[in-house]
DNA sequence: AAATCGTTCAACCGCATCCGG
DNA sequence: ACCGGATGCGGTTGAACGATT
């Protein structure tokens, strides 16, 4: 393994006893039992005292990313994905900071999501995931689609904008379809949280209609609580309005629509 | 059925920062 | 102020697994 190659002499002997790689059930149980009795922290001494043949770092990582109570496993919800996009726009690759705003999710999981899902799209398009054009693509397609998923999964969605979704399903329109789902943001506070609800902002997209809009989601599980139709605005294409985006073979029944569908943006190239 | 390829994600590494002595 | 150990963070790796050939 990588570490042992670098080790020599007695240090090597000592560390060769250390286990690496995937954790076994017994190791997990041992770690859980030890932390239950003694608490977490002081990872190096914990690693020695517990009898685990692991480094303190390894114990810490296993606990924080997997074993700790309330750590969520499984796919990120559309609400969580939206939050990641928004927070990444503000903070960049500050995975830990982003994770602090997604209860139960770890920095590692969010980082993996970004690399495997978001950057995958960028790679497919052969553009830099940090480039303006990719950010615009996110704005034009990903966010509206996530919003639709949020809306679709909402208990209150049936009476809000079903017609919009049906229109999309029958005849995809390259212009984003988030019509009627946003409430005007009147807050200038950069904190996305309010006392009784979360209003998620989209500073991600300068000049976009999303910039000064937010939507309200449930505090506990990110479920959409309400939409305000009295002050809705249609999405408008902004500075890339001349682009004729087209989705490639969209399967509207797929649960993984947003995750796995690539965008066909060949026509972007003539503007690059 | 076997080989190859692509994707995912748990785990590791190096470096930065924090903190107590 | 300095030092050394502990902890946190972000980038990277590689085993496992599913999809494709």
Automatic annotation (TrEMBL):
Name of the protein: Uncharacterized protein
Domain of life of the organism encoding this protein: Eukaryota
């Amino acid at each position: 393994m990588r570490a042992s190659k670098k080790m020599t002499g007695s240090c090597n002997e000592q560390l060769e006893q250390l286990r690496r790689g995937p954790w076994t059930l017994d190791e997990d149980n041992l770690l859980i039992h030890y932390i239950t009795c003694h608490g977490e922290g002081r990872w190096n001494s914990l690693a020695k005292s517990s009898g685990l043949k692991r480094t303190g770092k390894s114990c810490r990582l296993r606990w924080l990313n997997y074993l700790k109570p309330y750590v969520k496993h499984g796919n990120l919800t559309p609400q969580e994905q939206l939050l990641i996009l928004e927070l990444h726009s503000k903070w960049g690759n500050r995975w830990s900071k982003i994770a602090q705003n997604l209860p139960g999710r770890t920095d590692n999981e969010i980082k993996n999501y970004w690399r495997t899902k978001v950057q995958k799209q960028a790679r497919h398009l052969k553009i830099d995931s940090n480039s303006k054009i990719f950010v615009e693509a996110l704005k034009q397609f990903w966010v509206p689609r996530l919003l639709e998923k949020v809306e679709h999964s909402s208990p209150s969605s049936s009476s809000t904008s079903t017609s919009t979704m049906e229109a999309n399903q029958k005849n995809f329109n390259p212009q984003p379809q988030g019509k009627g789902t946003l409430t005007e943001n009147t807050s200038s506070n950069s904190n996305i949280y309010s006392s009784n609800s979360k209003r998620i902002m989209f500073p991600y997209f300068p000049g976009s209609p999303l910039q000064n809009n937010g939507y309200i989601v449930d505090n506990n599980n990110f479920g959409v609580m309400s939409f305000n139709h009295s002050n809705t605005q249609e999405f408008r294409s902004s500075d890339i309005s001349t682009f004729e985006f087209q989705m490639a073979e969209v399967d509207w029944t797929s649960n993984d629509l947003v995750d796995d569908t690539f965008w066909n943006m060949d026509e972007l190239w003539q503007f690059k």
